[in-house]
Amino acid sequence: MNLFVFGIGYTAGHYLRHHAGHFDRIDGTVRSDDKVAALAADRIRALRFDPPEADPAIEGALADADALLVSVQPGPEGDPVLERFGAVIAEAPRLKRIAYLSTIGVYGDHGGAWIDEDVRPVPESERGRARLAVEERWLALDSRAGKQVAVLRLAGIYGPGRNAIEDLRDGSARRIDKPGQVFNRIHVDDIGRAISAALLHDGMGGAWNIADDEPAPAPDVVAYAAKLLGVAPPPLIPFAGAELSPMARSFYGANRRVANLRMKDDLGVRLGYPTYRDGLAALMAGEG
């Protein structure tokens, strides 16, 4: 099976490092040339795609692909992948399975209530509305072009090099206190399990929440990381007076508890890190 990846960044790159053995050939896109040599050493052909620039070899690689992983954020004009390569993807003769990495941000605010995939997304932010519109375009390829499309709505991503332990070590960790606010998270290893389920099996079309079992307040996560390090946690900062970027502040505007039962039942994903405590403890031990 041949795989093509749009957007070899943190999440897709981690997936390839741990799951490349499932595929006979892997091609993918990067935005700059500095990753090309490192990926080539892992037998991954990296092609530049930094709109409007695109390597001419991308179209040929898509024609040879059996599976497609898309890890690219929407741009000002919508989805840069569909805008440039939508027709090529729809007509790719071998391509049958597509996994599109989205976000639980499409759901918007639900006042801290539990929600699942039956809840209609109502994103308040322009960013969330753009993401939902892109989801719908990818899912339309199922009926329009006969492609199996799995939209994976990811919770807050953490993993090696990107977690509360590292934030404490580099001095960037803060504990923003907004009573009642919770967030779901997902370890990048568990995202990999979901991607493989979507790309390696038939009957995996639709949208799924990819999230942990325990939505929790952000200050609790930092406090637990501090406990693992044996240091005092940073003081609580009231949300109302916290200095936050507009994007960071927007994250606190949506409060929800995201259920993951269908991820387990439909995709067969068994979480390696069901809670943030499991994930952080493994990262601290060098195992996650």
TrEMBL record:
Against InterPro entries, the record matches this protein to: Epimerase_deHydtase, NAD(P)-bd_dom_sf
Give one Pfam family.
Answer: Epimerase
Query: Which domain of life does the UniProt lineage start with?
Result: Bacteria
Coiled-coil residue windows: none
NAD-dependent epimerase/dehydratase domain mapped to chain residues: 94-211
Q: Which CDD domains match?
A: SDR_a4
Q: Which UniProt keywords apply?
A: NAD
The protein's matches in PANTHER family, at most eight in alphabetical order, are given as:
EPIMERASE-RELATED
Could you tell me what this protein is called? SDR family oxidoreductase
